[in-house]
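Page 37, continued from 36.
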């Protein structure tokens, strides 16, 4: 696969994913974590949970929505850079080294707080329950950003979780536009959308070129079902994508609407499915592919990652993905 000269800059909450498979829901009940939820926890609660899972088998990978997308693009030989904040601790070093090993250039800020982490409990039905301690990730601020970070890139991709820091997001978007970048925005979570609808509308109308939303996020923003939600999003952005899980995805681009089917996949863990969809879509986009091709590559990556525990797919899976991308490009 040819290496694209176009580069993508990402920014998000720099977290280490700590993945734990559990046999039943009893531990979740004991920890007061509603199944299927994403619960923000403080440092004391995070330490308590880490102590409870100390004897359980675990796997680690750099995480956070935007980081997952950027790592997916790097695996497709796309030059990428990532902005985030970590602590100066073991998990922070692990994050930095893992990103380096996956060919991601990092622009990391360092904090006295511990590195953020997302402890992900995976039940036998593939459902994920998150206990997320943001820690140092929240220390990234507008004052850490400057024009030099944005020069030389084509697309700036940001995760929706960051909009809780409005000053940071506005400055990032302004610098991206000044540098001539297109802005890609992943809504990230329906509860974040519900609590920040007016601000998100402002961002989409004034700055965002490409918006990604799943069915729940699109409904939280528009109050509408996927097709009508897509139409409303497309009125604000150049490209709009609404993902409907096993139903595939809807894409509005260049005044046309496309339905792309999901690939057949045996789901083990849905962690990162939307993030990897965005990686595949953006790969097609910066390589000038047709909207339907972009969606097919997004569906390919999103479908393959759910067959793996966590977001780190093995080399043989990426080789298979590259071969299928060649087929999509030739269609």
């Amino acid at each position: 696969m040819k290496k694209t000269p176009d580069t993508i800059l990402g920014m998000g909450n720099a977290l280490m994913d700590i993945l734990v498979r559990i046999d039943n829901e009893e531990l979740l009940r004991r920890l007061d974590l509603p199944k299927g939820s994403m619960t923000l926890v403080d440092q004391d609660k995070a330490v308590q949970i880490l102590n409870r899972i100390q004897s359980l088998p675990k796997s680690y990978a750099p995480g956070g929505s935007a980081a997952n997308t950027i790592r997916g693009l790097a695996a497709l030989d796309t030059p990428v850079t990532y902005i985030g904040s970590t602590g100066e601790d073991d998990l922070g070093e692990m994050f930095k080294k893992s990103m380096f090993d996956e060919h991601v250039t990092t622009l990391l800020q360092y904090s006295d707080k511990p590195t953020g982490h997302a402890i992900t409990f995976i039940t036998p039905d593939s459902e994920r329950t998150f206990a997320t301690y943001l820690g140092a990730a929240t220390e990234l601020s507008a004052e850490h950003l400057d024009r030099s970070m944005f020069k030389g890139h084509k697309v700036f991709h940001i995760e929706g979780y960051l909009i809780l820091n409005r000053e940071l997001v506005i400055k990032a978007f302004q610098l991206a536009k000044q540098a001539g970048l297109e802005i890609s925005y992943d809504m990230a979570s329906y509860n974040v959308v519900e609590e920040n609808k007016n601000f998100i509308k402002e961002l989409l109308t004034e700055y965002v070129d490409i918006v990604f939303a799943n069915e729940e996020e699109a409904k939280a923003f528009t109050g509408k079902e996927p097709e009508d939600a897509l139409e409303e999003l497309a009125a604000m952005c150049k490209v709009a994508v609404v993902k409907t899980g096993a139903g595939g995805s809807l894409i509005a681009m260049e005044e046309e609407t496309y339905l792309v089917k999901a690939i057949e996949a045996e789901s083990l863990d849905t962690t990162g499915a939307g993030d990897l969809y965005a990686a595949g879509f953006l790969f097609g986009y910066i390589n000038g592919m047709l909207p339907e091709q972009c969606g097919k590559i997004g569906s390919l990556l999103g479908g393959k990652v759910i067959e793996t525990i966590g977001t780190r797919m093995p080399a043989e899976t990426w080789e298979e993905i590259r071969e299928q991308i060649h087929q999509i490009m030739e269609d």
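The first strand starts at residue 8 and ends at 11. Flag for discussion at group meeting. The mean pLDDT is 93.
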